[in-house]
Amino acid sequence: MNNLETLGQRISYLRTKCGLSQRRLMDELGFENLSKYEKDKREPKIDVLKALANYFHISLDWLLNGSEYIHPNGLTEREIQIIKQLRQLDKNEQTKIEGMIELKLVEAGIHAYSLQKELNPAKPNIGNFRPK
C-alpha cells in the first residue's frame, strides 16, 4: 500500500487510483495548485477539501488525518453516503440492492439478517378479530 502519511500523499493517491491527471481533476473541480497540494507545499482551503471529499466519496477526516470518522451510530462517512444514495432509488430498486447484499453475505459465509423482515414485518393475522 502507498505511504499516505500526509494530506498531499492522500490527494495524490486518490487521483492516481482513479486514473486522473492533475489537469483533469483541477478542471473538473475548478481549482488550481493541485501539484503544490500533492507535494505538501501548500494547504488547500476548506472549499477545495470539501470538493475533493465529495468527488471521491470520502470523509474529510480521512482526507485530513488518514483515519475514518465513525459516527456515534457506528457508521462511517462512506456508509452514510451509500445509505443516502440508496434512499434516492425507488422501493423496487432498493429491494433489489438489499437482495444483492444478502446474497453477498451468504456467499461470504456471514449470517445475513433479512432486511426484508425489518422493512416489511409480517402483518398480524386479524381476520378472525371481532370487536366487542
TrEMBL record:
Query: GO: which molecular function terms?
Result: DNA binding
Q: Do you know which SUPFAM superfamilies this protein is assigned to?
A: lambda repressor-like DNA-binding domains (SSF47413)
Highest taxon above the source species: Bacteria
* Pfam families associated with the record: HTH_19
Q: Where is the HTH cro/C1-type domain?
A: 11-63
Q: InterPro entries attached here? A: Cro/C1-type_HTH, Lambda_DNA-bd_dom_sf
Q: SMART domains in the record, alphabetically?
A: HTH_XRE
Official protein name in the record: Helix-turn-helix domain-containing protein
Q: Which organism is it from?
A: Vallitalea pronyensis
